[in-house]
């Protein structure tokens, strides 16, 4: 699974590219309504990195409702395969909580119940994270709702900025400024680096590089994930920035081999000036007091715009559920203001509703408010073979990244990547 869900929650790191099963099941039919005549037990599957988050919501619901929700955590590296097998056998649980990037994989095969009318009837429907709703929409019908959000931004070490003679309250606004700042921070000493990234991690790099491309105006997965658009100047500028930083020695040497397992360690230790990362590290950064830090948009090469990859998890009801009404009662309850503020935001996570970005917990820290405000215009990529094309450690995306950043012929790497990613998209249609 990708770090789109919960990048770098220590002890719960997803394994990239290890669950790449595409569903070959026949479209599941069924009304999704069943004998919900009395107290019901609703079953829910969630991948292990999100299990604790989901359990907090479930425990609060179970204390106040006759219906009960039973959570089963599934090891992350076997989640897709287990769901695929259960879908084929029509033995799915009532609710499936999945990494949002895999929603098209499910919805295109009829695995989930159409929730369109239920979602649209919610009084706050217009404020539910729009990119998550779009990722769960197939042929105009909505099949999922956001369950947990994660958003990527540029984190920077204000303490190192100040030591390097840079303005700690003025983060880089374009690629020229970013490269200059990285070099200035690297000059502070042999153990201090200007920038870091997960250079051997497909999900990490998709999560943090896509926003530069979107900010530059490029629809890299156009026509609802049918057309790859990577062989262009904007994408080449993104890779060129990273290659310049790598060649200039402003990155630590383990950036080349970083597979995501210790992705944030160097930045959290205070030895790295800047890093594109996910909102899941905010809690750890807030708890430390060894350095000051800030956040900024992941910007277009010329600074003309900014964007974010809105990752995390979506929740859906299986098409074969016999307790769809009870399942929906839980799901819509999780979206309500009290739960989003008193459980989700209070715990340091991002609420899934843009109208709640000013709640007392999120707004208490301007940095978390900044991250949350980006959700309204952020994007979630849409591609049927996202796992094999982008998260697979041997897939075409990471091969393109590594060739363009660490290789001698970056243009060739981009050209080949464009072709192989397009082939993956074509084969999944």
Automatic annotation (TrEMBL):
Q: Does the keyword Transcription regulation apply?
A: no
Entry's transmembrane regions: none
A Pfam family hit: SBP_bac_8
Q: Name one GO cellular component term.
A: ATP-binding cassette (ABC) transporter complex, substrate-binding subunit-containing
Q: Classify the source by domain of life.
A: Bacteria
Q: Which GO terms describe its biological process?
A: maltodextrin transmembrane transport; maltose transport
Which Gene3D superfamilies does this entry report, sorted A to Z?
A: Periplasmic binding protein-like II
What's in the keyword line of the UniProt record?
Signal, Transport
SUPFAM superfamilies xrefs: Periplasmic binding protein-like II
| UniProt-listed InterPro entries | SBP
Q: Which PROSITE patterns match?
A: PROKAR_LIPOPROTEIN
Reply yes or no: does the keyword RNA-binding apply. Answer: no
Q: Where is the signal peptide?
A: 1-26
Q: Annotated Gene Ontology MF terms?
A: maltose binding
Q: Which family does it belong to?
A: Belongs to the bacterial solute-binding protein 1 family.
Which PANTHER family does the record cross-reference, listed alphabetically? MALTOSE-BINDING PERIPLASMIC PROTEIN (PTHR30061), MALTOSE_MALTODEXTRIN-BINDING PERIPLASMIC PROTEIN (PTHR30061:SF50)
Protein name as it appears in the record = Sugar ABC transporter substrate-binding protein
Q: Which organism is it from?
A: Nonomuraea cypriaca
